[in-house]
Every structure is written in structure tokens, then in C-alpha cells.
């Protein structure tokens, strides 16, 4: 009995010190087939990072739009003019990039083209006034 315990302790120490190889099922499936020559795991590129969901901002924007439409409906049903209501607040897209030179907002790709060009413009009009929140 003591001999078995000593043997167990030796084997157990070896197992604790060694790391197990990670099993890759795609390699195992491709082994022995024509696909094996095309399978290179080191050359894989990482996926681009996924942006967080902006569902809350989109939802709030949607709710504001519905409320504005209801206000217009109420005014029209009471015989008023929809033009008497204040204009709805502009919807801001969080994906847009603000130009540091003219404070305009652009989608990411047009911003890449605009910002270097805007930096060299000498007769630039005044930036738009800041929006109230």
C-alpha cells in the first residue's frame, strides 16, 4: 500500500509540472487530407475588435422621434399649425468623428479625407455655434 502511494505521488508531481497541449479539432480533422497543406494557424490574423452596442442611444433617439411626432399630431388634431412647434433637436450619431478644425461631424471614412484637407484651409468660415443640451 505504501509503495502505491509513493508511485502515485511521483506520477502526480509529473502531471502538475507538465502542461497539456491544447487540442485543435480543425487540425485533427484536416490531418491526412488535402486540406492539411493549407492549414496554417500561425498566419491567422485576429478579428478586428467589435465595437460596443449603442442600442441605448438609438433607443432614446427613437423615443424622442416618437414623442415629437405625437406632439405634431396633437397640434394638428386641435387645429394648430405644425410649423408653430419648435424644431426637433438634431439627432447625433455617436459613430461620427468631430473635425478639430471646423467642428463639423463626419462618418469615419469621410473624416479621414476631410481632416487633413481642413487643416490647410486658410479662409475658413466660423465654426457652428455650440448646441444646447
From TrEMBL:
Lineage: Eukaryota, Metazoa, Chordata, Craniata, Vertebrata
Protein name (database record): C2HC/C3H-type domain-containing protein
Domain C2HC/C3H-type: 95-124
Keywords: Coiled coil, Metal-binding, Zinc, Zinc-finger
Family: Belongs to the ZC2HC1 family.
Organism in which the protein naturally occurs: Staurois parvus
Pfam families on file: zf-C2HC_2 (PF13913)
Amino acid at each position: 500500500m505504501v509503495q502505491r502511494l509513493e508511485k502515485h505521488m511521483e506520477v502526480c508531481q509529473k502531471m502538475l509540472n507538465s502542461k497539456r497541449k491544447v487540442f485543435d479539432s480543425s487540425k485533427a480533422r484536416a490531418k491526412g487530407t488535402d486540406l492539411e497543406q493549407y492549414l496554417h494557424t500561425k498566419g491567422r490574423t485576429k478579428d478586428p475588435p467589435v465595437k460596443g452596442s449603442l442600442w441605448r442611444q438609438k433607443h432614446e433617439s427613437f423615443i424622442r422621434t416618437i414623442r415629437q411626432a405625437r406632439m405634431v399630431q396633437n397640434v394638428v388634431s386641435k387645429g394648430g399649425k405644425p410649423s408653430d412647434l419648435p424644431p426637433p433637436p438634431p439627432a447625433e450619431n455617436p459613430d461620427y468623428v468631430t473635425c478639430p478644425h471646423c467642428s463639423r461631424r463626419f462618418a469615419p471614412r469621410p473624416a479621414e479625407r476631410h481632416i487633413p484637407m481642413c487643416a490647410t484651409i486658410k479662409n475658413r468660415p466660423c465654426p457652428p455655434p455650440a448646441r444646447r443640451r
